[in-house]
What does this fold into?
Amino acid sequence: DTAVSQTPKYLVTQMGNDKSIKCEQNLGHDTMYWYKQDSKKFLKIMFSYNNKELIINETVPNRFSPKSPDKAHLNLHINSLELGDSAVYFCASSQATGDLPGTQYFGPGTRLLVL
Amino acid sequence: GDSVTQMEGPVTLSEEAFLTINCTYTATGYPSLFWYVQYPGEGLQLLLKATKADDKGSNKGFEATYRKETTSFHLEKGSVQVSDSAVYFCAIHYGNNRLAFGKGNQVVVIP
It folds into this structure.
């Protein structure tokens, strides 16, 4: 009965590779997010989708491409991985109506290490 | 833009001690304020929230009061337990369901 799930949990890969992280939520929410958390725990939003439409696109290299096939899924594809991409990536979801705006539900994170 | 600032550095304290983590905000208007907690190896969880001046959010023995006059939302707990060891993030909602997070404070509670 996991609310927001991510796969994989750990990802170790070489520089230059292309990888994807998947996220699914079973809360019926209409908005999903990707965050990046660096080694100092600083959390920065990358993207947000509402009903499969991109609504937030922060200053992120275009090697990162989100894709939302439906409201319950938001995937993140990363091309040509660099050392600086090593971080924990969190998926989150929220509901535009009902919950207090700003109430978000986070997945367990994907720990990416680029060697 | 809207932002929050948390006190610098980790916090280490003994079990049953009093915990305070400072958070101040900069915002136009009257944003909602939040504390999120991240336990080791997990994602963030909402701990408590407040929507307007003088609101007090509370959960699991933690409290924070929305203070408009000092633009603050300090987190407090009267008697911490080892299980409270985590990273605590202050956050502000600044529209379109966006959250801006503070840098987080690592709290370590020693038995």
